[in-house]
Amino acid sequence: MPEKKLGELLVESRLITTEQFSEALEMQRMNPSQPIGQLLCQMGLLKKDDLDFVLDHNNKRLKLGEILVSQNLINEDRLNNALNICKLEKIPLGRALVRQHLIEEEQMSRAVASQHDLKFVNLAGVRLDHELSGFINVSFAKRHRIVPIRYRDNSLTIAMAYPLLRDELAQIESWSKMRIIPVIAKESDILIAQQKIFNLHVASSNEEHNYDLSEDQIKISGQSKYVSDFISADVDFLVKRIITTGIRDGASDIHLESTELGMNVRYRIDGILQKIELGTDDTLINPNSRQIISKVKIMCDMDIAERRRPQDSSFKMKVTKGSTIRNVDFRVSTIPTQYGENVVIRILDKRSGTVSLEALGYAPEHVSVLYQALEKPTGIFLVTGPTGSGKSSTLYAILSRINTPGTKTLTIEDPIEYAIDGITQTEVNDVIGNSFVRLLRAFLRQDPDNIMVGEIRDLETATISLRAALTGHTVLSTLHTNDSTSAVTRLIDMGVEPSLLATTIRCVLAQRLVRHICHRCRTHYTPSDQILKEFGIPGNSGMKFIQGKGCSACNFTGFSGRLPIVELWIPNREELLLLNRRPDNPTLRETVFVESSRLTMAEDGFRRVQAGETTLEELLRVVPFEQIEAGREKISRLFDGKGA
Length: 644
What we know:
By secondary structure, this protein is of the alpha/beta class. It has five domains: about 1-55; about 60-115; about 125-200, Type II secretion system, protein E, N-terminal domain (GMP Synthetase, Chain A, domain 3, 2-Layer Sandwich), CATH 3.30.300; about 210-350, Beta-Lactamase (2-Layer Sandwich), CATH 3.30.450; about 365-515 and about 560-615, 3-Layer(aba) Sandwich (Rossmann fold), CATH 3.40.50.300. The protein is built from 26 helices and 20 strands. The strands form four sheets. It has a seven-stranded antiparallel sheet, with helices on one face. Helix 7 runs antiparallel to helix 8 and helix 24 crosses helix 26.
């Protein structure tokens, strides 16, 4: 016997008539996303209590996951993954989805409102009165994540993150002697509203983040020379909390983004911007957003009164954890926006000691070839890729390898990111005229064996670097190009003579960083047919794929850490001769990769997928698509219908 629909149950229960149900169906055609029960209540044809009774008694209420899937906010796979996390972490489904960054908090709250036929309210537009605190017990409100937001005509409107049980609503009615109107709001907004209405002092997280400002910053511990306003202890603590959370979780940047409601704090971890929960401290950020930005500007001695123009500066800190003290530099950039200022804090953690290519995650075969190339006494070594692709880390690893007691190594950097003992490191300072070109000319008079130029940006820097390589020095540098071969064509386009390149180029390494699958939540999965098609992988390949399902260890992203994928080009004699003909990049790539056994970046990335270290989706995000297209036929030949 087919299961009865809600309308039939309501008619059978004599709560509405057939004509009233037909009228509601007509209204629903104009607003298909609105549940029929909610429409009947809005039309005054059905009481909310009667609707709730029928829905719950007959198990007709849609589940939250079903609503989100029907609204195309998530798919079935992500829902099932989130449900597993709910069981492991013992948290509500909505909170798990938000923590996984699969939906926004407001989308989740609106779905909860739809599920229970309640109105969603944005508390940002609601005027909150301290007198409302007398209607509800503060402990009850904190425990159940609720807050009173309006009192009118003997009715009290209560905002809730999740609907209360009938007994709990009856308890509030008994306390307040009023009719209760429940509505749904974002949990974060409710916590802020509770603080305003109940005058709560929000306790900070139990997690300790102890650090001290470095010696040259003590002068700014509270006031700026530009203002006389004192920064409160709460704001001091919040700035410390935000920064040390970024250091603890290995963030490269901290983004403080002004919004209409206050401030959004996000961290770039493993190349992806993420929201990290700061516990109860989250509720203090929005009301103190302007003071937080002012505090950061004070720390790096910016003009706190200037909010209309971009500013750049820096500050230093000593981060103390137990008995360990680390020196960390921070670069700060501000820009004006429609809601205030946005601040980006780049974390430059100057780790002492050496960094090896093996520690960075390079494959053993690549390490062996690179070390052989480094044994040659002269030439230029180029590392290419976009910003954030790990070029500087690779150069530091190479510097550590060639840094021996019998050699002198000089570097020009912007900025100095890691301190290496035994190497003379110099920072670019355009304000006083210390540009790459000027410092490079001076370096050549210092009798160096090895020179590292942070980046080749113009013809003059390129020419001097190449001539230094020609006259017996080992030169290391970076370029912003998509692949290894285009580094050469870029230099030729700059105006460098091909003959000079052919004489000095020793090695070109193009790289990207792909996220590593989290070790704690690894699981088998099947990529979509579209993803497999992009790589030319047949559906019956038999290849097993791994992904991270998301856990607290990886902030529910499924990834933890990053690995390099590279294409390594050490030119042979024929390829160097080809440079004199000024080849275009497609022609050069045909010779270097198609006609040889060298692996392209896409193919090296596919090896990482086969090893269960990353995913196909991650390769699509990182690798230039033209390389994936070019390697599709080669990858498909690996299977040839026989399986992996």
